[in-house]
Amino acid sequence: MAPSFDDGNSLFNFVVRDGNGVKGMVDSGLSTVPQAYMQPPIERIDKDRARKHGHPPIDLSKLGGPEHNEVAKQIVRAAENLGFFQVVNHGVPVDLLESLKDTAHDFFSLPAEKKAVYRDDVSPTPLVKYGTSFVPQKEKALEWKDYISMQYTNDAEALQHWPEEIRDVSLEYLRTSMSMVRKLLQVLLENLGVKPEDSMIDVLVDKKMVNMNYYPTCPNPDLTVGVGRHSDMGTLTILLQDGIGGLYVKIEDDSEFGKKGEWVEIPPVPSALVINVGDMVQVLSNGKYKSAEHRVRTTRTKSRVSIPIFTMPNATAKIAPLPEVVEKDGNTLYKEFVLADYMKNFFSNAHDGKKSLDFAKINSA
Ligand code: OGA
Ligand code: NI
């Protein structure tokens, strides 16, 4: 039986501890958003004030062809300014994208008990985690989102431990994405004056995670957020979003993409994937590439799914701005750190824009 959602404790127990998620709460019949999900006014999303990002998706089939340099420039410009871009002809089959979205909907429609076995403290495997919001124990207002996260180590372990309902499409998505990710990194690194060896790229994408995010319908979308303002901590993120929309990116500096401080929506484009720069690429590039602050709105009439792949170095990797870049720049903005320490800081604090990067900043005020 669903509890009273006006009582913070019973809500927390039902949604978080017992693994019913936001979806379980919505399914129990909800006409208004519980207090625990109400964002302070400053965090609410005024969708009428955001513009749509108008740049067409970048055609990756042109990399390596006669238009290589032009396409490489588009990638670099997007990474330097907005930190976000969309790509087509990315090598991931379009029918697989459709299956992924359908599979995500099917998975979150499973009874709570089926998903709740993967809750953090009880999951039979450290590779798989099902949860809701980002760090519910730490957040002043919860995010209107449930998710499942699958860490990739190797095929055999994925086949053994990932939930069987979503395992095969997720693995295929990962397999068919990685050559694109490597090509993008190659372009970004070459532009920094680095001749990237395969082994260097291996290090940058050593760890991979496939997530499925589920944003249930919300009775008061203006009061809530699907995901609060954050940047992604890793190397590059590949994101499949469905047709609902509501992904916003903050412009860090005035540029061709808009004015500093504005939010632009990354509109759904059929068969495209969204790419965004993570904190590690911002650090390695000594701040040239922007790990963009982004967030997601909720919607009233249809649930939304998105399926990101996060790539990052191994937890034991030492990260610092690349020596080639520091030499050219004559200064370094970030100190060297061990990724595990960065991650510990990232995952133990509620989302707060790009504050995660303060961990690595030299002279952070
Ligand atoms: C994320 C994220 C965006 C989306 O999972 O880190 O930013 O559209 N997702 O769901
Ligand atoms: Ni993100």
Automatic annotation (TrEMBL):
Query: Which InterPro entries does this one have?
Result: DIOX_N, IPNS-like_FE2OG_OXY, IPNS-like_sf, Oxoglu/Fe-dep_dioxygenase_dom
Q: Which UniProt keywords apply?
A: Dioxygenase, Iron, Metal-binding, Oxidoreductase
Task: Report whether Transferase shows up as a keyword of the record.
Answer: no
Q: Which domain of life is it from?
A: Eukaryota
Q: Which cofactor does it need?
A: L-ascorbate
Q: What's this protein's family per the entry?
A: Belongs to the iron/ascorbate-dependent oxidoreductase family.
Q: For the Fe2OG dioxygenase domain, which residue ranges apply? A: 196-313
Q: Which GO terms describe its molecular function?
A: dioxygenase activity; metal ion binding
Q: Which organism is it from?
A: Gossypium barbadense (Sea Island cotton)
Q: Where are the transmembrane segments?
A: none
An annotated GO BP = coumarin biosynthetic process
According to UniProt, the name of this protein is: Fe2OG dioxygenase domain-containing protein
Which Pfam families does this one have?
2OG-FeII_Oxy, DIOX_N
Spell out the Gene3D superfamilies in the cross-references: B-lactam Antibiotic, Isopenicillin N Synthase, Chain (2.60.120.330)
